[in-house]
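re the bet — no i am not wrong, look at it urself. input seq straight from the record:
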Amino acid sequence: MINISAPFSAPNALAEPDYRGLIEAAGDLIYTLDLDGRFTYVNTASHNILEYSPESLIGRHFDTLLTKASKLIARGHFSRGIAGDNRYPFFEVEAITSTGVSRFLEIRAASLYKGAQLIGRQGIARDIGELKTLQASLSERSQRISLLENQARIAMTLYTRLTTFALESEADVQALEQSQKALRHAEAERLGLSESDLEIVALLANGHSNREIATAIFRSENTVKDRLKKLMQCLGARRRAEVVATAARLGLINYP
């Protein structure tokens, strides 16, 4: 990490990078703290990220910008850093801007030295609000998919049990199985799926890996991967679990 306490001017301006210019132009918040945790330097990114001017933050303690929970995290990290423990440079906090807006920040911090003397801490804070929102969205979507899979499993189980109780003879059972098979093939044909594709889906539903599926259908793993891609396209699925859930919903497999 750049030691921004060092002078930025150079005898030959053409030979040396303009470090101060680079830091001030950075989109991430770059800062230094003294040994008490008060800001001694903040770049202009503070305007966009925290809605504070750099001047208004100088001399202010870092924990005045944080939520109660994040204060504990940041104080602990700061204390360990001052004590010489720099094994875990990354941590996340929730900051509050001057207008009361919550901002999630990922911080990478390190000790700040002047020569051999420890004079404080320095760090880079990156706004990860959009990343947090995306993670939450993906988690919610995953939960919805799991719910649909469970609903499909329960529905198929109930259907199987009800038809078993309702049918009075073996002939009825056979007739039902034949009807289900005919409907399954008609639906598969409509989607452009073969009997082999349905076999792969059934093996997938039973938790088999690509290697195990390849062994079962006497094909290579690469062939299985290609067939799975085809199944995902045909069923509008993005992952293996969605293939099984959609196939069960369409009646392509029995998923007890």
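see?? The longest helix spans residues 129-166. told u. also Residues 79 and 85 are 9 Å apart (CA to CA). so pay up
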